[in-house]
């Protein structure tokens, strides 16, 4: 079996979770002894695995179908999680949905990372078979490491007794960056650090203004990777992710793998795999979040952190590797 793993616009998307999902897929496929190529000039592959949505993707799918190759699309995007992102995204969302439906309908198989994502796709009226398979997480990369944590604390000049709450993601309304800032205003005794690619021409003006005028206990250092980011995941006092919509939430997987205390919004994406007061805490509004942050930063929550790690283990690269192998073998037999 040979898989052509395609990622359009890698240079543009290298700072996104989608890029890390692509890398996880490559590792998982290779771990399952499945030959992988990323060279679109090759023609001797059996399955085309798609992660992106541009014109290059459409051309490659058309070529693959003419050659009777199997086409699999890993679903990272829906209309629902396109909304409340870039300037004009809400206006463009209905057209984007039509484009996605047309694209997804050309697959032999769709992979959805959660039951929630699968239900959204069913709601689009798609008749393509859909299987559920996590984006996966590289467990060794996010193991707590005292040197990485110390590097994080030094970079941000974090004092010994300071409590630090982090989040990771783009500056989107959908990600809840406005709630992050508002809660920080109400909790000046703590430091709030939002790690993610800085605002650009596509960022809504109100978000830029909000970030610029954020209180002194909120920091937006921009995109960070490697040891500093990994040290932040495990070295902070709480990972707070107030996103309103996700297909899975790759940064949540990374926080789980870091044995971190996690607070997320109670949204359908997390149903059935994140359990409130077992492996995380969930909140419904800012008042709720504020109370739960106060609890998390002042309690060790050892059992919760270990339960969080077990969720990450179930979605580790070796775990999804076995699933990829089984799914792809069945597809070729079909």
Structure, briefly:
Helices cover 44% and strands 15% of the residues. It is of the alpha/beta class and 334 residues long. Keywords: Transferase.
Task: Describe the protein's architecture and organization.
- By secondary structure, the protein is of the alpha/beta class.
- It contains 14 helices and 12 strands.
- The strands form 2 sheets. It has a 6-stranded parallel sheet, sandwiched between helices.
- Strand 8 (191-195), helix 9 (205-212) and strand 9 (218-222) form a beta-alpha-beta unit.
- It is globular.
Characteristic key phrases:
single chain; about 325 residues; alpha/beta; Rossmann fold; 6-stranded parallel beta sheet; 12 strands
Helix content: 40-55%
- Proportion of residues in β-strands: 5-15%
Which class best fits the helix and strand makeup? alpha/beta
- How many separate domains? 2
First CA to last CA: what distance? 14 Å
CATH topology-level name of the largest domain: Rossmann fold
CATH class of the largest domain: Alpha Beta
What's the SSE pattern? EHHEEHEHHEHEHEHEHEHEHEEHHH
Q: How many separate helices?
A: 14
Q: Mind summarizing the main beta sheet?
A: 6 strands, parallel
What integer is the average pLDDT? 95
Per the principal axes of the C-alpha atoms, what is the gross shape? globular
Number of strands: 12
The CATH homologous superfamily of the largest domain corresponds to: Glycogen Phosphorylase B
Keywords: Transferase
Organism: Pilibacter termitis
Protein name: 1,2-diacylglycerol-3-alpha-glucose alpha-1,2-glucosyltransferase
Pfam family, one: Glycos_transf_1
